[in-house]
Amino acid sequence: MFNSQLIHSFFKRIITETGKTSWILFKIMIPISIVVKIIQELGWLPYIGKALAPIMNIVGLPGETGLIWASAMVVNIYGGLLTYFSLSGSMTLSTAQITVLLTMILVAHTFPIELQIARKAGIKIIVMFIIRFFFAILLGFILFKTYALMGVLQEPTTSTFAITQQNITLTDWLLNEVKNYATILLFVFALITILEILKITGIITIINKLLYPILKILGIGKEVLPITVIGLTLGISYGGAIIIREANAGKASKRDVFYALVLMGLCHSMIEDTMLMFAIGGDLSGILFARILFALLISFIIVKTTKNWSDAKFQRWFLLNPSKKKSLTTQKKNKKQLTIKPLK
To answer: How far apart are CA 83 and CA 79, in angstroms?
Structure first.
């Protein structure tokens, strides 16, 4: 009886979380899918591809993939992937190319939310944007050249989520969209189930313990180590929320907060996002191993380069000016008080 109740509670929690997550995703995805369809019907895609081609060509990708990456950066990973699903019928990518694209998305995505988390922790948005955007391009370039030099992963790949866009009616397109969303719904259910099992079995705890020594070598303070591990394994939304509280409470130094956010920014949600990108067709050599090594190397270089900087120099380059922040807050409060003051 106890076991049946436990199983019932488990699946009830999974179904509830799947419903909430999918609803949030679909509210974002459906408009993107419509916009992509309109762009295709109006024939704007070649112009967008041409504008983004120089950046994407650097990493060996066709210009159209720039729209996919832009969608991921502005919306989120799922928004970028849905754009990919919509375009996959009109282009063929090799396994190496899709791995490069997905790895770049993993490094740079969901900027409106994740950069805001960094800002609330006291880090300049422009700094975090530059780090994630340009290092995503650098990692993509390294992977592109490595795969080409070694001659690996050059075979064409097809996604099971692909939507055929050639010679279909509007009704056919709508039916394909519904099937695509149903597939995503099932995948979200499976993903949440796996994550819950990993938590229950304690595997995530084991992963956390394995990561502690590595983070210490990087020079990240022990005050932010647990938070950093949470961000690396489960995502910035988990670790970022806690690190904001720690930073604002003064429990962790601004330097350590910055270093932790750099590492989390370049490599986070290693479990969920890696499983997702692997299902799409990305190779683990890029979406997991290269991403981890690259994030550790860049973080190590940044820490060693700036560790001996004066507080004033570090503040000027990377951190928000606390006095200005307090000043703006005071001005808002005063403005509010003046607004609500009754007239005599």
So the answer is: 6
